[in-house]
Fold each of these.
Amino acid sequence: MGLSWSNTRRRTTTFYHPPPPPPPCCYHHHAEPISLLPPPPPPHQSHYATMHQPPPSQSYPPPNNPYPTHIPPPVHHYCNSHHYHSSNYANHQPFYYTCHHQPTSGWSPVISPHVGFASTINAATAQPILPEPAPFVDHQNAKRVRNDVNVNKDTLKVEIDVSNPDHHLVSFVFDALFDGSITIFYFAKEEQDCRFVPAFPEAHLPVKISFQKGLGQKFHQPSGTGIDLGFFELDDLSKSSPEEDVFPLVIAAETYLPVDLTNENDDSVPNTLRHMQITQAVLEKKNGDNFHVRVIRQILWVAGVRYELREIYGIGSLAAEGFDNSDPGKECVICMIEPKDTAVLPCRHMCMCGKCAKELRLQSSKCPICRQPIEQLIGIKINSSDQ
Amino acid sequence: MANSNLPRRIIKETQRLLSEPAPGISASPSEDNMRYFNVMILGPTQSPYEGGVFKLELFLPEEYPMAAPKVRFLTKIYHPNIDKLGRICLDILKDKWSPALQIRTVLLSIQALLSAPNPDDPLSENIAKHWKTNEAEAVETAKEWTRLYASGA
């Protein structure tokens, strides 16, 4: 499965994210393979990062004091930048990207049996297989990123303009914490700093529509501003070209800066200060005449940092209120006691509590759900009181 | 045995096994060792084991759930992936074990193995050979053994 989230070309070079709280001392954790703030970030980390890491001096104790004697401060929830966010916050908790996501297909821990090896019940002869020491794995906590505007990707549609039947209009449900605007692009190319440029400006210019803040709003593109999709080949509409960063349909939802509400002229605002959510989609025509919108990717652009939004599997069951000890969907799959709060990367299975994740790493390097190698563990706290 | 130190996961699994048993499967812990379970699996319909009641023993080692349970058939069974000692050839009991699996899922997997013998990956060479050379006859033998040894008496 080719999960490549990095895009060094797009990585901002101007942003340093706010200095973390007193850097937790990582050297106390050396004995444990999944220390929460490990020294040098493993090379694969850049694989997921779409934002800048803090300068090393912020991450590590100064070289003249490599083994401080104080007790490490508790791991701070915000101190590790991470770029891993579930993407759908529409229902209850509109502020943070570590919020729940509806499980799409839902994973199941049932693993189909395959024959191949004998098990033995003779405890005297059957020593547990001692796995090789697991390779070092990064274990970080999620960073919360407040998203001011969110297009609910499952609601995105293109429909025929009834008063202009050759043309199609976009509709969706969205949440916005501030006033802002929606811009609809067709065949838009992403350029540096999350700017979008229509690839065929002669065919269709972007349509920009303002909105007022509010949750669960329905967006309907005004009649008459639609596009004649007949102009394009069906093949082109249903094809994304991520390598060229061109998508047939791009929705840019942007909030105006609270500091400068009077200035709605985008060009005067440095892009690094803008706050946008981008939804990139293709248009498919399966059977019948209606186009079906399939969202390929959502991007969050906050304060000059570009995040790609990914779903975390198994996080949805946690979003419901409270932790009920009898709900198998919420408990750690290993101890079956603690609520799960740790996701595995790159497979994105949220399935364990932090303690069991740590213990698992001593024994195995595979995700308990899918057996893919664990490259990184990430702690995700959901409780809303922790904002 | 130190039942007092039984991990809460094992207690929880046991409670759930007793309160919501999987269809065709029963598992109850031994009174003197809560890590030892007496298991019964009904032969799946449409299989040569239909109508049979198969007894197994299941033991949760100290490392469980980081290590797989140890499971063995106590009832004699004619199956290419189960040997004459009742040992079971099933990857999730060995290298494909995952701590996300449970007693319930292990027993369901064994039940599924009864429905889908795999003579290409045998534990009992002779039975597997029989299965591959004359499947109808092997199935008849399996049915016969089911009648003889797994009639639930």
Note: The interface with chain B takes residues 109-123, 126, 128-129, 333-337, 351, 356, 359-360, 363-364, 366, 368-369, 371 of chain A (CB under 8 Å).
Amino acid sequence: MRKISLSNLDKLFALISEKAKLYLPVDGKNGIASFKLWEEGVQMSQALNTTRSAKDFFFPQTENLMEFKTEGKNIEIIDTRTEKEDFVIFGVRACDVKSFEILDRVFLSEPVDSYYASRREKGVIISLACGRPAETCFCKTFGIDPASPEGDITAWKTATDLYLKANTEKGEKLLASLDGITEACGEEAVEEQKKEISAIMDKLPLKDLTTDKFGVGKTKEYFNSPAWDELSSHCLGCGTCTFVCPTCQCYDVKDFNTGNGVKRFRCWDSCMYSDFTLMAHGNSRLSQKERFRQRFMHKLVYYPDNNNGMFSCVGCGRCLAKCPISMNIVKVMKTLGGKEND
Amino acid sequence: MTNETLIPKLGVITDIRIDTPDIKTFRVVSPEGKKLFDHRPGQCAMVSIPGVGEAMFSITSSPTNTEYMEFSIKKCGCLTTWLHQAEVGQNVTVRGPYGNPFPVDDVFAGKDLLFVAGGVGLAPLRSVINYCRHYRDRYGKIDIVYGSRSKDDLLDYQEIINEWSTDSGVNVHLTIDREQEGWDGHVGFVPTYVKELGFEPNKTAVLCGPPIMIKFTLQGLSELGFNREQVYTTLELRMKCGVGKCGRCNVGNKYVCKDGPVFRMDQLDELPDEY
């Protein structure tokens, strides 16, 4: 384990920036924290919970896939993929780090999505232990420890120092390159912080929420539950939950005619939208109830079915904070799971 | 750069056959005049006109055809309407093959086969039927029940009359919904006709057509003694990627693009009723 005084944090960021683009959470004007490129003078946000998740780094909201030139009956296909640059994301919370593993299982399974894979390959993740979990947080429900996040390097911030520990080869390489400004240290202060975080977790309102009632093989039990009517009745279908969700990975592929060719791009899509499944001859999910059900069945049952029981939710709490009608996965779990889950 | 399934291959339309008032069959090859890629019966491909759209279509030609691929496409949305206005020589993009094929080489081998199709539902089955006709000695008797709204709406009519009907051991049973001048064949809906024909329940059945036809044909087959384990069908839902990542074509925990499109009825029974 290495450490650096917080007063030298800028030196650390500057040194990392010499090697690769560095992104970290920065407070915005409206109190909205988001990942921004670090430059001299940029201060890291004290809140770790960025409004948008960190999935943009690997699965951007929109990205160009390829281009076409069309002339008369002719089409030319242009592979516009380029080598990606190295980059470092600093300050990723435990929940968001876990979300990368969930996305990996989709995008890195055969056939590998080369767009996602090339970013994943170039990105180094420095996670930061979550000293300030919010009352909307329930990462522990999914077995995530906010005090010991994964990632290439794990960082802990105490009142005086930043502690760093490498977990992967990529992380070791980066950490070794910072040896000049960091010093070797013991783990006592980190152990102390872990205990503090654990104590905060035990006080959170959602600490007792469990996944016991969900997971593999539960489709028949929940698909036709009468509870979906009530749960979905006020859903606006705005898709906010899917856009702030770190694990939502559905995408649309669309063409844009530039006047000088066609750009084919993909962008985030949402199962909450009526045209998500719309075909020329009909729609397999006709009402908002069916779309709503799809989202939560996918996170709590279908994804676990296909991924050895792993859930497609990390308890980051963004959907709890952002849904305009205050509907969220916790209410769904409590309603479907029955009294034991309340 | 590594292979990327989303980046398609270039194809050229070398022939357009007008099958019915709203279905055309497009023959596609590479710019060098070769077949774009191999496939198995029942698999699909994403066909696109850049700037118009990209959609999944079943490859209707048999894998045994080594020269080209064919797609029978009904005019019903943006892309299909555009394609229906296209001329020979038009470039298209194609990627695939996607999905699981019908189990023609194991489960179907040695069995009597019953194909039941309605309307453009014959398109995905034509690939299987022609594959089984090509390897005729590997299969038992083949029965094909095919129906459409009218005689003019029967897909592949010339091929059915000139080739399928003349094969030994292949029985074709055509029907149209209503009486029509110049039609002396059977009149009536497909499910009723299947029951009237009263097949022995020792066959393996393959169904494709409108959901209502599937539903009543299944009922009829069940009355004839068929088990759901003997009946196969192929599904279609909206798709963007074709490889189980864009997230929209799932029925329960199965993605139609990668886990289907071919399903056995008892497998479908295990999934939620959302297709």
Note: Chain A touches chain B through 52 residues (CB under 8 Å).
